[in-house]
Amino acid sequence: MSSLSLRTSIATALLLVGLGSCMARAAMAAPSVVSIDPNNGAAAGGTSVTIEGSGFVAGATVAFGATPSSSVRVLSPSTIVATSPAGSGLVGVRVSDGTGLSAAAPVDQFAYDPLPSAHWLGLNGNGDTELGPIDRFERAGIVYDRSGQIDWIAGELPERDGRPTPGGTALSRDYGAGMTPVVTIEYGGYEGEYEPDPHFPGVRGGSESLERYVEGFVASAKAILRAHPHKQVLFEAMNEPWGYTTPQFDGARYAAVIARLLPAARRAGIPLQDVYVAATGRRWISEMYRASPQLQTEVEGWYLHPYGPPNGVAGEGSEGIQSLPQLQAQMTSGQNNLIVSELGYCARNVNGGRGCGSPSTATGEEAARDLTEALENAVPYHRAGWLRALLVYSRSAGGWAMQFPNGRLTAQGRALLAFQARLPSFAYTSGFGGLGVRLPAYFAG
After folding, report:
1. Domains assigned to the chain
2. What whole-number distance in Å separates Cα of residue 351 and Cα of residue 337?
3. Count of other CB atoms within 10 angstroms of residue 280
4. How far apart are the first and last CA of the chain?
5. Which backbone phi and psi does 395 adopt, to 5 degrees?
6. Backbone φ, ψ for residue 318 (5° rounding)
7. Which of 7, 56, 63, 444 is most buried, with most CB under 10 Å away?
8. How many angstroms separate the Cα of 105 from the Cα of each of 50, 70, 194?
9. What is the DSSP-derived secondary structure letter of residue 101?
10. Dihedral of the CA atoms 128, 190, 392, 113 (nearest 10)?
11. What is the pLDDT of residues 3-39, one digit of tens each?
């Protein structure tokens, strides 16, 4: 073979190799993100985030929103560990390399946690007057209130025919005492039966109950905001709706309500960060997302009732205060804005043990011990910024009481005030990369 032919053959071979390499690279899929853990972190940055997906190659970069991560380790084609930069709000975590940029998806949403508020504790019934001065706990900084006339039926207004309604009077009393009301807006009067309800809002068989509820919720919320334009108020969209769907714990049925409610609230100018959506159990959130995928990005706040042991998790993964990180891990928006209500323990020797079901304890002292432990376990969630408020149940309900009729505090009432008094001096450690949280013994000795 002549030298010319040899050179031609070599050039042709190199060209084919180059074309093959280019074709192979073009055929490689762009990176894809399927999960991030944790899905939230401090506004200052510095959170180590594990990104799972596919198509990750050496030299890949990661951005949190528009801001690149300064530390990216590609552990395998399916795993990257990146450190979050400083930021705020909800941002997508995107992976980029020579093949392209990962597509935006709800599963890549990372929430920056706000700074915690100095006031975050409250009571179900803080505004009730039958058991003593309403400022007893408010003076200690326990200011959130959810109870009594604060539970509204959709469409109720603060006043009618120029006169305050019972709900309007309760709101004014709360604000006058320096409290922050949590208003639950129901589709009907909440009676606590906890059984499937054929009247649960929906559009079935020609029923328009869903639209009536949405319109009523918006009307009530707008009227409250107009009546108290410079005050803070939180709204819950139904109390424990999972108990009233048919069948019970049907997240899809509740999702249909929220999918109509949130856009209507947004159009009406109601801040969605103050509208809280119910969450419970291992399957509830995922069922809501499957039924109404838009909720993966539209929900801006969640509320939970983590009845159960003061430490650890039981049952369906929603029982016990330490279940919160497990449920938070399922959220793709709103994971930096949670409230908890009805935390507490019922003492069977207080007020005849009225209202005691589960969880309950034999004595008020045992209930106080469990309440203190549960509150301790909630501290790092608040300090991290994503637990906005926690309300203890209840100041005035039978064996759950914080006070006796003569105004004297129960053991739980004393424990709550003692916890609040010690709170500013708390030092704590936490492990939010996983589901466990380790705390020192705050009240040792």
Report:
1. 32-112 (2.60.40.10), 121-425 (3.20.20.80)
2. 35
3. 25
4. 94
5. -70, -30
6. -120, 5
7. 56
8. 16, 22, 36
9. E
10. -120
11. 545 455 545 544 444 434 443 443 468 999 999 999 9
